[in-house]
Structures are given as structure tokens and as C-alpha cells.
Design brief:
By secondary structure, this protein is α/β, with parallel strands linked by helices. The chain folds into three domains: 149 residues, Rossmann fold (3-Layer(aba) Sandwich), CATH 3.40.50.1980; 194 residues, Rossmann fold (3-Layer(aba) Sandwich); 33 residues, no CATH class. The protein contains 16 helices and 15 strands.
Length: 433
């Protein structure tokens, strides 16, 4: 990781220091994704099978995974693995269930009643990455709030492993979360299937889940199409920023940075610290922990995009954090809670030395599907309400229309919409019905 002294950088240099890898705007990726979307839209299952052979090297006889395989996967798990997954499920439910919205009923003026009614989506596509690691936790983070929200149809798509099958832990999680529609397909082609529908996979109303540059691009493209699905948020390669003062433990900071770096070669990790001495200690500790890391090659490639930024004061730390808008913001400074009111842009925040980012990834209860690439400036992570839409309802009495109608008529006149005005005046000219 490159060490940068913030005070020595001008405005342009600072922007470069906080820049993300540019792969998401790669024109070649865009062309390839558009080709894949077109193939699946035109050829359905046949295209999915051909693309799975091309990209995964797997010949599939069927896309859908029988429910019996998920049941068997759960039954075959080690008891301690079952208990760990159940603990995560319990905590995720505990955090998400209170988010369930209630109907809103307001009398805006006498005789004018307005309501807001929540409705669960009728279907949700849950994309579960498995390129270099089968993300059991992602299935749980998406399926659990979807089920709590009342979504009747949850569809999981996830790539096959080298053996041509879905990882048993992912299937076990599907069983635990009550998902019975699981398909063995990944990448942009899976997003296309969820968006357009094929012979095997009926299209969905909204697509959820993180993924690589191809998956993220595909989600963005289908959401722009007329009649296309909604998407949860921009969620590409993972990223983390750590704010660390000189009292922070370099061992802890290094472990948090590496826990993100091992996700993906395109993941980005950044540490903002208070001294050159800490920056050097952190560099040494990262190198020390890398020596026996099983995914060392991935982490090292990711660290090429990493930065250690040295600043002079705490306010600058917060300013950088808000400018960067990290997916994960880890705060390892004195009195970390005092920083929270000043944090405007972040997907999820982790406070203090005993809160590793890993707990949010798996089992603390918060959702780990979070906005990346600076999208935390405008987007939240996935919440239960992500699986809900709202319908507004209004009902006026005769007295209510008499009170409100003249204002509506005047506003309709301002816009030159005579039929709008008459819809009020014709009623008011009638007697009581």
C-alpha cells in the first residue's frame, strides 16, 4: 500500500488518492455485457447453458436445483456449522424485523384523509456471488429480510463451482432461509435471466445482490430498460476505509484491511492515520499477516489499489471519510462514538477495537449488502424496506372536497388543464349523492 502525506497533496492529487479502480467504466465490459443481455433475451435457457459452458467450463443438464438438494445440504452440515448459520439468522432477523413499516393514516385537513399502505414486492431476484468464494452470508442477508417483508417469490441465482454444482453451504443457507427456487447460473447472464425471464426462470420485479464488474454493469443496464426490473443499489467490488489514531492496534487495523482485500483483486482498502510511524507499523503488520494468508495472491493484487493516508488532525479524517463514502468505514480512534454524528457518507460503520468488519459481514445483524464506489453518498445498504413498495390512498368526504376543491381548481387553471378543474367543479355543482 502506498503511503501518502495528505498535507503535501494539492486538490488534484487528493482526488487521485481517493479514486477507485476504473474497471467499472471499462467500455469493453459494457460491450460484453450488452452482448450477453441480448443473447439471453433472444435465446433464453439455451443462451444460459451456452454461456455457463463458455465462462464456467461447465455443462449443465438443468438450471434449477431440486429442493431435495438444499434439504440434503442442510442435513449434511456439521452441527457447529448449522449453529453458526442459525446464530447469524437469528441476529439478522432481530435487526431487520423492527424495520417493518406500518400503514400511515393522516387527515391532512377536515374531510381529506391520506394513507400510505406498504406492500411487499411480488418477486425478488437474489444474486449470490461465488466466483472465488461462495458467499453464504449474502444469501442470508438478502433472503431473510425478503421473507420478513413478505415477498412470496424469492429466486436465488449463483454460479456453479468447478464440480458443476452449487456449494453445499449456499444450498444449506437457502434451505434455512426458506428459499426453494435456486438456479445454477451466474454472471451477467443470471442478471439477464432475472430481468427478462427464460423458459426456466420467470422474471422478477427487483434484483438484489453484489457482484463483479460484469454483474454490476448488467444490473445497471437492465434497470434502465423500459419495463426492466428495479435494482437494490450499486454494489460492485468490495471496499473498506479505516480511521486509525496512534492508539489503534496495527494488528487489528491490518486484519480489517486484509479481510476486504482478500475478497477480490479489484477490492480497495484505505487507511487514514495520524502519523508516519503508525503508517510504517501498519505496512509491516500487513506484510506479516500476508505471509500465511490462503488468498494471498488476491489480497496482494488488491493492495496495489490501496492507500495509507497520513493526516494532521481528526477533522481531516472525517472530511476524507465523507468524501470517499466507503462501503465499510471502520473507526479505530479514541472515543469512536463521538465521530458518528459527523459521519455523513458510509454504507456501514464499525466502532472501536472490538468490532471487526467481519461481524457485519456475517452475524451481528446489520446487512452487508452495501453501496460501493462512492454510492454511499446517496444510497443506503439493503434493509427490510428494500423489499417493500408503498401505495398511497386518499378519500375525501363531500365537505372535504368543498374545502379543498377551490385550491385544486386554481392550481389546475395555473397549468391550463381544464379537465382537471372540471373533475372538481362538476362534483361541487351536484347536490349530495
Amino acid at each position: 500500500m502506498r503511503i501518502v502525506n495528505w498535507s503535501d497533496c494539492d486538490k488534484g492529487e487528493r482526488a487521485n488518492v481517493l479514486a477507485r479502480p476504473e474497471i467499472l467504466s471499462d467500455a469493453k465490459i459494457l460491450r460484453n455485457v450488452d452482448n450477453i443481455l441480448g443473447m439471453v433475451r433472444d435465446s433464453g435457457d439455451a443462451a444460459l447453458l451456452d454461456l455457463t459452458l463458455k465462462f464456467d467450463g461447465i455443462v449443465l443438464s438443468s438450471l434449477r436445483v431440486p429442493i431435495s438438494e438444499s434439504e440434503a445440504a442442510w442435513s449434511g452440515l456439521d452441527l457447529l456449522d448449522q449453529q453458526a448459520m442459525q446464530t447469524a439468522k437469528t441476529n439478522i432477523e432481530a435487526f431487520h424485523l423492527p424495520q417493518k413499516p406500518k400503514p400511515l393514516n393522516v387527515e391532512t385537513m377536515p374531510g381529506v384523509v391520506c394513507r400510505r399502505e406498504p406492500r411487499a414486492l411480488d418477486s425478488a431476484g437474489l444474486y449470490v456471488p461465488a466466483g472465488t468464494a461462495p458467499l453464504v452470508s449474502t444469501l442470508m442477508m438478502l433472503a431473510i429480510p425478503a421473507k420478513l417483508a413478505g415477498v412470496p417469490r424469492c429466486v436465488v441465482t449463483t454460479p456453479p463451482g468447478k464440480d458443476g454444482k452449487i456449494d453445499k453451504h449456499v444450498l444449506a443457507a437457502a434451505h434455512l432461509c426458506g428459499v426453494d427456487e435456486v438456479y445454477c447460473v451466474g454472471g451477467a447472464q443470471a442478471i439477464a435471466a432475472l430481468a427478462f425471464g427464460t423458459e426456466s426462470i420467470a422474471k422478477v420485479a427487483k434484483i438484489f445482490g453484489p457482484g463483479n464488474a460484469y454483474v454490476s454493469t448488467a444490473k445497471a443496464r437492465v434497470a434502465q430498460m423500459a419495463g426492466g426490473p428495479a435494482i437494490d443499489l450499486p454494489a460492485g467490488p468490495s471496499e473498506a476505509m479505516v480511521l486509525a489514531d496512534d492508539q489503534a492496534d496495527p494488528v487489528f487495523v491490518a486484519s480489517d484491511l486484509l479481510s476486504q482485500a482478500e475478497h477480490d483483486t479489484m477490492a480497495q482498502v484505505v487507511c487514514v492515520c495520524r502519523s508516519q510511524k503508525f503508517a510504517q507499523c501498519l505496512t509491516d503488520e500487513i506484510n506479516n499477516q500476508l505471509t500465511d494468508l490462503p488468498r494471498r495472491n488476491i489480497a496482494e493484487a488488491s493492495l496495489e489499489n490501496g492507500r495509507i493516508i497520513v493526516v494532521n488532525d481528526r477533522n481531516t479524517m472525517i472530511e476524507i471519510a465523507n468524501t470517499y463514502a466507503a462501503e465499510h468505514l471502520i473507526v479505530q480512534i479514541d472515543k469512536p462514538e463521538s465521530a458518528v454524528p459527523h459521519i455523513q457518507n458510509a454504507g456501514s460503520v464499525f466502532l472501536g477495537p472490538w468490532t471487526p468488519e467481519s461481524v457485519g459481514d456475517y452475524a451481528s445483524g446489520t446487512n452487508h449488502t452495501l453501496p460501493t464506489n462512492g454510492a454511499a453518498r446517496a444510497y443506503s445498504g439493503v434493509v427490510l424496506e428494500s423489499f417493500i413498495k408503498y401505495i398511497s390512498v386518499q378519500q375525501l368526504s363531500r365537505a372535504g372536497l368543498e374545502a379543498l376543491g377551490p385550491s385544486v381548481e386554481r392550481l389546475a387553471n395555473m397549468e391550463g388543464l381544464e379537465a382537471h378543474r372540471r373533475a372538481v367543479s362538476l362534483r361541487l355543482e351536484r347536490g349530495e349523492q
